[in-house]
Amino acid sequence: MPATPNSLSGTTLSWRSVGRTCAATSMSSQYLARAPIASEALKLIAELYAIEKNIRGRIAEERRLVRQQKSRPLADTFRKWLHAKLALISQKGKLADAIRYALSRWEGLTRFIDDGRIELGNNAVARSIRPITLNRKNALLAGSDGGAEHWAIIASLVQTCKLNDVDPLVYLTAALTSIVNGHPNRDIDQLLP
After folding, report:
1. Rounded to whole angstroms, how far apart are CA atoms 120 and 47?
2. Cβ neighbourhood burial of 129 (10 Å; 0-12, 13-18, 19+)
3. Model pTM?
4. Angle formed by the axes of helices 106-114 and 72-88, to 10°?
5. b/e per residue 174-191 (b: at least 16 CB within 10 A)
6. Using an 8 Å Cβ cutoff, are 82 and 41 in contact?
7. pLDDT by residue (tens digit) across 7-48?
8. Can you say whether the dihedral through the CA atoms of 183, 160, 118, 8 is positive or negative?
9. For the chain, how are helix, strand and coil distributed in percent, rounded to 5?
10. HSE-up of 182 (CA within 13 Å, CB side)?
11. Same domain, 86 and 153
12. 113 and 132: one domain?
């Protein structure tokens, strides 16, 4: 069953995080003997990204169809491959942890195949929330609880503007001008970006 637009974030997982885990394992000198397994995993993940590169910008239904034809068989093969490799290696190593991580999150990792609206990776989401996370840390230095609360409101409005392609300075200037000019409190939602 495809995810609804409201459930898209939080239900998909990033193939990049699986890839980073494999890359870290393959680069670790302690696990150099197992590097070929991690390197092969990276190649398989790269094949998924190559398919995505070719369908980027297409409508959701087209993406879903291509994914069903090309990504599904690759993902199914990769899952079997992960199970086979897990059986061959030490269960206490980092590589085993990386494989178990991917297998335990398989439903979220493959959700993109059945829903063309979902991206293969969540990099865009991660990039968009990074400034919010930084602002949250900065708000700790606001001087008081009230100051931190005001900081959080402004930071939230600025990030909402950015996510909606609205210039934050233009928006805040217009919203504050409206409030100063007597915009009714009961209609304050009309001023949201």
Report:
1. 12
2. middle
3. 0.54
4. 170
5. ebeeeeeeeeeeeeeeee
6. yes
7. 333 334 456 556 555 555 444 444 444 468 877 888 888 899
8. negative
9. 75, 0, 25
10. 0
11. no
12. no
Residues 108 and 143 grouped into a single domain: no
35-55 and 15-27 helices, crossing angle to 10°:
150
pLDDT per position as a tens digit, 84-143:
999 998 888 888 888 898 899 899 889 899 999 888 876 655 666 666 666 666 666 667
- Final residue before a domain boundary, out of 105, 121, 137: 121
Q: What is the pLDDT of residues 69-89, one digit of tens each?
A: 999 999 999 999 999 999 998
Q: Token pair of 116, please?
A: 């063309």
Q: Which domain holds residue 30?
A: 5-121
Distance CA(118)–CA(67), nearest Å, equals: 11
Place of tokens 């193939």: 15
